[in-house]
Amino acid sequence: MDQEIRKPIYTAAELMKLELPPPQWLIEGLLPEGLTVLSGAPKIGKSWLSLQIALSITTASPLFGRAPASEKSVLLLALEDNERRLQERISKCGLTPSENFCLTTEWQDGVSGLKQFLLDNRNIKLCIIDTLAVFLPSQDAKGRNAYDADVTRMRELHNLRRDTGTSLLMIHHDKQGEDSDWASKMNGSSGVIGTADTLIRLSVQKRGSKQAKLQVTGRDVADLELNLKLDDTTMSWQIYKEQDDRQLTALQNDVLQLVPLTPASIRSREIANKLAKEQSQISDILKKLTNRGFIFSPVYSEYSKSPY
User: Which of 137, 159, 175, 246 has the fewest CB atoms within 10 Å, i.e. the most exposed one?
Assistant: First the structure.
C-alpha cells in the first residue's frame, strides 16, 4: 500500500510568506490542471467534445477562443467504444493523426495499473477517461452510503493525479430529474461534485438538438457559460455565434468584424485606431469577446478568430 505523504502544518503567517505557483492551464480559461468531471446526458456529444479537447491540447490549437500554452500528450481511455467507432470519429472530425494522442478501448489494470503507466510515460499531461462509472464504479452497493463511496473513489483519483502529475478528465453521465443547480444534475452524490477540482456540463434542450450549453465552474477557473452548436460535417462543437450576436452591442460587433481568422491577427491598438476609440475601451471589449469564445489571443495584445 502506498504510504500517505503528509504535508507540514503552517501557521497563517508562515503560509502567507510562501511563494506559490499560480494555477496551470491545459486550455487557458477553460480547463485547468487537476481532476475534472465532464458530465451530460447520454448520447448528446460528450465524446465528440472530449476528442476536441484532446486535439486542442495535442496540437496547441484554440478551442472556443481559448488556446493551450503548448502541445502536450493526451491518453484517452474510451471504455464505451471500439476501434472502428474511434477511427470514424477521428476521420469525421478531420483530426490529424498525432503521436501525442494515444487511445485504447480497454483497461483492465485498474487505478494502480494506470498509475504505473503514467509514471512510465511522463509526457502524458492529460488522461481522459470515458466513463467514470466503467473505470471506477461506485461501491455504495456494498453497505456504504453513496456519499462516502463517491468521496472514496474521487479521492483515489485525486491521489492518482498527485502521484503522477497527470491531470484527469472524467466523462460522466447526468442523472434524471430537474434541479435548479446545474452541477447537481451530475450523476451520483455531492461526493462527486464536491471533490472534483473542476466541473463541466454539456446540456441540450431536447434530445437530437444541435444546440447546447457548456457550463464550467471550479476552484481555479472563473464560472463560464458558452452557447454551442454542433457542426454536422465535422461533428465538432463550435460557438453558436448567431445566438450570441444578438446580445452584442454595436461597438462589440464593430470590434469583432475587425478581428481576422487565425493564423492572421490584429493588435488592440490597431483596432482602437481604426475605430477612433480609447485603447482601454477596446481592450475591455476584446477581453469580453475572448471570455465568450468569439476570439482568442495567440500572443499578448494580439487577437484572432478561432475556426471552432
Answer: 246
| CA nearest neighbour of 293 among 259, 266, 268, 267 | 259
Integer Cα distance of 27 and 105 in angstroms:
25
Burial class, 104, CB count within 10 angstroms (exposed 0-12 / middle 13-18 / buried 19+):
middle
Same-fold call for 22-240 versus 248-305: no
Instruction: Give strand pairing partners of 104.
Output: 77
169, 36 Cβ separation under 8 angstroms? yes
List, for residues 204-226, the tens digit of each pLDDT value: 877 777 889 899 999 988 888 88
Q: Across the strands, what pairs with 225? A: 215
CATH-assigned architecture of domain 248-305: Orthogonal Bundle (1.10)
For domain 22-240, the CATH architecture is 3-Layer(aba) Sandwich (3.40)
Of 1-5, 67-71, 244-248, the one with minimum mean pLDDT is 1-5
